[in-house]
Write a structure and sequence with these properties.
Length: 324
């Protein structure tokens, strides 16, 4: 690993010299822009928009554009004259509980490697933070910017993690926050069942970037002149479920199936109130249907008797006409 910063942590009157190393690395596959016909790389020229001439890298400076379009040009000397540019100290501002640092503020982490002959001050700070269950909020200069950061102990090493300044975190403003949305207890209980079904200890090794693996396979096949294998796609999800409870019920069942659990009771106790309600409703429907059936039978029986009586009367009148 290559060090990206060298300085010292100020722990009271104690100075702890350290180097910073990036604690993470991106595994994304990078591409070059090339000419489709022959694979030649596409190169760009740095051209001035005023005179149209190509500008050497040595003549390029940083510019800040004002609201009216005017450009303020800053040179390397301007940055060199700023006090922060020569600062090589990590200044401890306070010690706070780790859970009070909002994770949305977290930036890039760096490992701190002690460079002095005596590592005791480093170990003292590390063990003190670990024993107190706190992190150190610090301020430092990194990449020509003043940074807020925190120091914490991890696996025997001090980790410096940059933080966003408070005014760099946007406020969440969305229309639905002003709406009066009510969630039923049955829905909350079913959602709890889904969370419970997928609850486990976090094991980073269980996860992998399958897209990157498939892309690497495609690149390897093309480089070797082999036929590119089409990655196997997962079967699409079943039809859209409109009913929220039904969607949650299916989610719980699928989660339990993935974990090899019995899905016979997928509806769980959370669905009991709804089930009772459905049973009561079905029972009431059956009783109503029975009453309607009985009433219909009585009406039909009465109609049958009336028809028979009318028939007898007609027959008697016909017989009387014949005898006359």
């Amino acid at each position: 690993m290559q060090s990206i910063w060298k300085g010292a942590i100020s722990f009271g009157l104690v100075s702890i010299p350290v180097r910073l190393y990036s604690a993470t690395e991106e595994k994304d596959i990078s591409f070059r822009q090339v000419h489709r016909e022959d694979g030649g790389r596409i190169r760009y020229k740095r051209v001035c928009s005023v005179d149209g001439e190509e500008v050497p890298y040595a003549d390029i400076a940083k510019g800040y554009e004002l609201g009216d379009g005017e450009m303020v040009v800053l040179t390397d000397e301007d940055f060199a004259n700023l006090p922060i540019s020569t600062s090589r100290a990590v200044e401890v501002l306070s010690f706070v509980p780790a859970d009070q640092v909002d994770q949305v503020m977290l930036g890039k982490p760096y490992y701190c490697d002690p460079t002095g002959a005596d590592a005791k001050p480093y170990v003292l700070l590390r063990d003190s933070l670990e024993g107190a269950g706190k992190v150190a909020i610090v301020k430092m200069a990194l990449r020509q910017r003043e940074r807020l950061a925190m120091l914490r102990a991890r696996d025997g090493v001090l980790v410096l993690q940059t933080l966003l300044w408070p005014d760099e975190v946007r406020e969440a403003r969305f229309d639905f926050l002003d709406q009066d949305v009510t969630v039923r207890p049955q829905e909350l209980a079913m959602a709890d069942s889904y969370i419970s079904a997928l609850s486990a200890d976090f094991e980073p090794g269980e996860y992998a970037d399958h897209y990157r693996e498939a892309l690497e396979s495609v690149i390897a096949d093309k480089a070797a002149g082999r036929e590119v294998k089409t990655p196997v796609e997962e079967a699409p999800a079943s039809g859209q479920v409109v009913d929220l409870m039904e969607a949650l019920r299916r989610s719980v069942a699928e989660a339990k199936t993935r974990r090899g659990e019995d899905t016979g009771g997928a509806s769980s106790k959370a669905d009991a109130p709804a089930a009772k309600k459905d049973t009561a409703s079905k029972s009431a429907t059956k009783k109503t249907s029975a009453k309607k059936t009985a009433k219909s039978a009585a009406t039909a029986k009465k109609a049958s008797k009336s028809a028979k009586a009318a028939k007898k009367t007609t027959e008697k009148k016909a017989a009387a006409r014949r005898s006359a």
